[in-house]
Specification:
globular; 2 domains; 2 strands; about 5% strand; 4 helices; binds adenosine-5'-triphosphate; about 80 residues; binds ligand L45E5XJ5; mainly alpha; two-stranded parallel sheet; about 55% helix
């Protein structure tokens, strides 16, 4: 079943405090933290494994199926 708990995610450069701040906010709101950098890296890994050229039109279908891929562990 897909987790319906709201998530917070903060984008920005490395080491600026995204994780620290998002964990603090998530704790206060009882939300989950979504680390967007991990999603980008996972999509890149899937594209590399499947030898897919990393251009927008190829990446969008992978991103759309990401929840299915994660649930079925089809990486
Ligand atoms: N408001 C703050 N003031 C001073 N130091 C901070 C603050 N917020 C976070 N830090 C410190 O800065 C460092 C980087 O923080 P954090 O890991 O939250 O950043 P990040 O943006 O998530 O990093 P990464 O991109 O590497 O995942 C940590 O050592 C953290 O303790
Ligand atoms: N493949 C990636 C990875 C990250 N980003 C951006 O960088 C930010 C920092 O990511 P971290 O995981 O190192 O905290 C992230 O918020 C993204 O904006 C990216 O564009 N592509």
């Amino acid at each position: 079943m897909i987790n319906k708990i709201p998530v917070i995610t903060i984008d920005g450069p490395s080491g600026v405090g995204k994780s620290t701040l998002s964990k603090m906010i998530a704790k206060k709101l009882n939300w989950s933290v979504l680390e967007s950098g991990k999603i980008y890296r996972l999509i890149a890994l899937l594209a590399l494994n499947k030898k897919i050229n990393i251009i927008e039109k190829n990446i969008i279908p992978i991103a759309k199926r990401l929840d299915f891929i994660l649930i079925k562990k089809k990486i």
